[in-house]
Amino acid sequence: MRRMITAGLALTAAGILAVGGAAAQDSVPAKVLFGRMMAPADLDSRSIGFYSRGCLAGAQALPITGPAWQVMRLSRNRNWGMPELVDYIEKLARDAQKLDGWPGLLIGDMSQPRGGPMLSGHASHQVGLDVDIWLDPMPDHTLTPEERETISATSYIKPGTHVELDKAKWTDARSRLIHQAASYDEVERIFVNPGIKKELCETAGSDRAWLRKIRPWYLHDDHFHVRLVCPPGMAGCKPQDPPPAGDGCGANLAWWLSPAPYKPPPKPVKPVKPPPPLTLAGLPSACRDVLNAPAPGSTGAEVNIPLPTARPAIN
Q1: pTM for the full predicted model
Q2: Dist. CA 209–CA 207, nearest whole Å
Q3: Residue 8 has pLDDT above 70, yes or no
Q4: In this predicted model, which residue has the larger pLDDT, 229 or 266?
Q5: Which residue from 149, 187, 252, 275 has the least number of CB within 10 angstroms?
Q6: What SS3 class is residue 227?
Q7: Which has the closest alpha carbon to 119: 315, 305, 249, 244?
Q8: What angle do CA 246, 175, 148 make, to 5 degrees?
Q9: What is the H or E stretch that residue 153 is in?
Q10: What is the rounded distance in angstroms from the CA atom of residue 169 to the CA atom of residue 33?
């Protein structure tokens, strides 16, 4: 099975400490340590650190099937987040269905059971406050586990371009869904492809305040990425700087729509040595406690080794 290679390969974070102490953990890339964890830390819920350098205590799982959502790619075990994120997803799913007629949400990656860096796919999603939501509507039946693994999300950007919206596929319903997603106070940002941001700018009309939260970013041609603010009063959760003032439809968007962001960097004269992998020592100190905490109902933090899926790192 993908999520358990052999019992002999199963480890515990506490066991790594017992063999060599903190130094043993610090010799292993943090993405391996956190990517192996299959259950949350039995601690009070807390986002620790920054969206792209942190971890998650007391994570809550989003049920894989709800009245207005279904979770995709179950084998990744990334349907975990802060309770605030789970509440947000359930609320958005209900409201979009009731108010806008959206059939239901298909949920991509949230966070790992203990957050932290992932073996593949993302630079952020580390503190339980990020979620990817597909731009495809939920189908009219409960998807099988196989369908959740094999169905591909639809790109709404024309092939061969980075930013040209495929208007034969795009609908106003998708614009309304993103508008609804941005309407809640707890939303900090929503990342979309620049071509989608352009469409939203052109069709928003006079109601434009919500567009400030919609930020262009690479690779978001088949989903949008919602990021929530740090929960009020949560010490240790590092907020992101607020988006610039205005609707974001001016010079910043024009730069994203130009070839500049997509030009490959010049080839270095000499090979560049890659930076060393991020280790536990490079994360907030509280992440060590999260990693080594027992899972709910157990005495040790059981882990196993999921096989990574090769995907480019995105935010």
Answers
A1: 0.88
A2: 6
A3: no
A4: 229
A5: 275
A6: strand
A7: 305
A8: 125
A9: none
A10: 41
Eight-state DSSP code of residue 150: H
Amino acid type, 229: V
Q: Please list, in sequence order, all residues whose beta carbon lies within 8 angstroms of the beta carbon of residue 179, skipping any fewer than 6 positions away.
A: 200, 204, 210
> pLDDT digits over 201-245, tens only?
999 999 999 999 999 998 899 999 999 999 999 999 999 999 999
Q: Which of 152, 168, 78 is nearest to 121 (CA)?
A: 78
pLDDT at 94 over 50: yes
pLDDT digits (tens, 9 = 90+) for 30-64: 999 999 999 999 999 999 999 999 999 999 999 99
Token pair 């000499």 is at which residue?
270
**Local structure of 216: helix, strand or coil:** strand
Give the angle 303-307-309 at the CA atoms, nearest 5°. 135
Other C-beta atoms closer than 10 Å to the C-beta of 161 total: 12
Residue 226 CA to residue 9 CA, distance in Å, equals 35
The identity of residue 56, as a single letter, is L
- Please state, in angstroms and rounded to a whole number, the distance separating the CA atoms of residues 9 and 19: 15
Cα–Cα distance, 193 to 91 (Å, whole number): 24
Instruction: Report whether 306 contacts 75 (CB < 8 A).
Output: yes
Q: Reduce the DSSP state of residue 249 to 3 states and report it.
A: coil
Distance of alpha carbon 108 from alpha carbon 153, whole angstroms: 10
Question: Please, what are the domains in the chain?
Answer: 7-234+278-303 (3.30.1380.10)
CA-closest candidate to residue 45, choices 296, 305, 240, 299 = 296
Other Cβ atoms less than 10 A from the Cβ of 15: the count is 14
Region label for 243, one of left (φ > 0), alpha (ψ between -120 and 50) or beta (otherwise):
beta
